[in-house]
Amino acid sequence: MDSNKSKIFVVGFDEAGRGPLAGPVCAGAVILPEDFPVEILNDSKKLSEKKRELAEEIIKQKAFWGIGLVDHKKIDEINILEASMLAMKLAWEDLISRFPEVWSLSMSKGQPLVSGITDGTRCPDVPFECRCEPKADGKYPPVMAASILAKTCRDRLMIEMDKKYPKYGYAKHKGYPTPEHKKICRQLGPSPIQRLSFKY
């Protein structure tokens, strides 16, 4: 990907998994190149699974990106909002570890030429200016891309958890508080990836 030293890099942040009763919260951080085909993007919840996976592949091919995960134990320890912010911070750190040239280019004039946009009402602890906006995942392409990476990553992890704990139906509901999920938790007790601080 070509980079311009005077360019302001816009980092989109979003998470997936604040509402579920089980599993991690996942976050994405994405910087899109100017020639990215933004028409393939949308709020991840408004895309079909097939379209999300296609977009994920193109994002990973063409963009600067990172993923952050915070597991169910940490969620119980610090609460889901703090865990979501931590996941976004980890996603930024993952992006920089994958693409260290982003930070060196952004510092070419002695200060970060990076700004962030976060879906929601809070920003993660990152070393540059960041603003938050509710429903940003339906307005700004970098945030849309981050939402897609977060959701595809989390869905894939929950499908893997379904193989370990098939009685809980994680491949179907991905840990969200469906009547079926709540019922099986009451019958069998919490699974090993249950968020014990959440009511079910």
Topology:
Layout: E1 9-16, E2 25-31, H1 49-62, E3 64-70, H2 72-78, H3 80-98, H4 101-106, E4 114-119, E5 129-133, H5 141-164, H6 170-173, H7 179-188
Parallel strand pairs: 1-4, 4-5
Antiparallel strand pairs: 1-2, 2-3
Helix pairs in contact: 1-5, 2-3
Brief overview:
This protein has 200 residues and is α/β, with parallel strands linked by helices. The protein has seven helices and five strands; from the N terminus they run ββαβαααββααα. The protein has a five-stranded mixed sheet with strand order 3-2-1-4-5.
Number of strands: 5
pLDDT < 50 stretches: 1-5
Rg is: 17 Å
Largest sheet: 5 strands, mixed
Tell me the series of helices and strands, N- to C-terminal: EEHEHHHEEHHH
Per DSSP, what share of the residues sits in E-state strands of 2 or more residues? 15-25%
Number of helices: 7
Tertiary shape:
globular
The SS-based structural class is alpha/beta
Mean pLDDT: 92
Assembly annotation = single chain
Helix content: 40-55%
* N-to-C CA distance: 46 Å
Biggest sheet, spatial arrangement of strands: 3-2-1-4-5
Feature tags:
200 residues
Explain this structure.
Mean pLDDT is 92; it is low at 1-5. This protein has helices at 49-62, 72-78, 80-98, 101-106, 141-164, 170-173, 179-188, and strands at 9-16, 25-31, 64-70, 114-119, 129-133. The protein is globular and about 60 Å long. The chain has a five-stranded mixed β-sheet. The protein is of the alpha/beta class. A hairpin with an 8-residue loop joins strand 1 (9-16) and strand 2 (25-31). The protein is built from seven helices and five strands.
